[in-house]
Amino acid sequence: MTRISAPRPLAALALAAAASALPGSPAQATDGYFLSGIGAKAKGMGGVAIGLPQDALSPASNPASATVLDKRVDFGVEIFIPDRGAGISGNGAGLNGDYSGNGANPFILPEFGYVRQLSDRVAFALTINGNGGMNTDYETNPFASFGASGPAGVDLKQVFISPTLAAEFAPGHSFGISPILLVQGFRMQGVQPFAAASSAPGSFTNRGTDWSIGGGLRVGYLGQLSEAVSIGAFYQSRIEAKHFDKYAGLFAQGGGFDVPESYGAGIGITPLPGVMLGVDVKRIEYSKVQSVGNPLSPLFGGVPFGAEGGPGFGWRDVNVFKVGASVEATESLTLRAGYGRSDNPVPQSETFLNILAPGVVQDHFTVGATAEIGGGREITVFAMRAPTNVVEGAGSIPLPYGGGEADIRLAETSVGVSFGWGF
């Protein structure tokens, strides 16, 4: 299998220490609340990476890709600006109005990757990256008419730390495995009136940030079918996480908040020298995590927030499609573009609670470039725009909360830069 060359590095351990600051970084929502891509090169191509590895972050998408990457380290930073909000109409309890959830912006999101070959067939990698999350900050509280005080919103951040071991088990075919350490934090504020419907009202809102750790597994396959075609696939298990004790009265199962399983496949094609095309498909099974997938309706069947089978955000499973291209414009400059499309996880009937978590963008348009700057070093930049998507509520606000409809919206803009070094 052909290895992808890279420039010379600085000390990987120093960069790993810098990346360990990631748990303090606010997170984002793109494919639901998963990232639309990992690694600056993939982000410039719409997120394509499963069958087309390009840098030291690629093993976070497909662990098997470590075998085709030369020794390298990549460190990147993304500036992420979401535009989120909600509108309420026809409500008999005084909630009507248009609300902006943009009290906190922008967010700085670093990521780190390191790869080295242990032998001709075996490779090691370490990736540290934000996997996903959600942030809303409504300085004008949409629930003030219920008696809520202060700003309203949530802040969920998730970071994956993934050591990887990959091996070429036959010429051109590799398998990789990554145990995953999850570090996640959550905070909710400004929804005090809803605590009356909780199994533990004192552990529902305004408890500050609570932290949780968890573990799971990612496996992947990468195959070189010819010099021009490569394919890949991955499976990531559900990541079992310690419960958020401070929010045991909010999330189902006493504060449970696992990361849902996901899986996908991709293909990379080099139709002409210097031209690469890639396509990824992916599925994320949000509905299998009670705190995310359960609808609000159990609340009106006598099951309170925080209980087994209790209310959640009502998210459904999503399918994701990504396509991207890169062209070597000169010997030292590569240009990229891409597009990603994700299903909307929020049904029209579940928009009320999702005022706090409007992860509904669907279309992602990206561009990027890599410039070699001498001595084998390189700089990669990218930009992403996800246009505003609005989900109009339909039977979304239950009559006990005044009825009417909640419409939610989200748009996203991000830019980023990454530095790559090789050994």
What do you see in this structure?
The chain has 423 residues and is mostly beta strands. The chain has one domain (12-422): Beta Barrel (Porin), CATH 2.40.160. Helices cover 5% and strands 46% of the residues. The protein is built from 4 helices and 16 strands. It has helices at 12-19, 40-44, 252-255, 290-293; strands spanning 72-89, 97-100, 107-117, 122-135, 153-170, 173-189, 210-224, 229-236, 240-241, 262-272, 275-284, 318-330, 333-342, 363-374, 377-391, 405-422. Strands 1-3-4-5-6-7-8-10-11-12-13-14-15-16 form a 14-stranded antiparallel barrel. Strand 1 and strand 2 form a beta hairpin. The relative contact order is 0.19. The model is unreliable at 4-27 (pLDDT under 50).
The CATH fourth-level homologous superfamily: Outer membrane protein transport protein (OMPP1/FadL/TodX)
Helix content: under 10%
CATH class: Mainly Beta
Tell me, briefly, the overall form.
elongated
Secondary structure class reads mainly beta
Number of domains: 1
Key features of this structure:
mainly beta; 423 residues; 4 helices; elongated; Porin; OMPP1/FadL/TodX; 14-stranded antiparallel β-barrel
Secondary-structure map with pairings?
Layout: H1 12-19, H2 40-44, E1 72-89, E2 97-100, E3 107-117, E4 122-135, E5 153-170, E6 173-189, E7 210-224, E8 229-236, E9 240-241, H3 252-255, E10 262-272, E11 275-284, H4 290-293, E12 318-330, E13 333-342, E14 363-374, E15 377-391, E16 405-422
Antiparallel strand pairs: 1-2, 1-3, 1-16, 3-4, 4-5, 5-6, 6-7, 7-8, 7-9, 8-10, 10-11, 11-12, 12-13, 13-14, 14-15, 15-16
Pfam family, one: Toluene_X
Keywords: Cell outer membrane, Membrane, Signal, Transmembrane, Transmembrane beta strand
Protein name: OmpP1/FadL family transporter
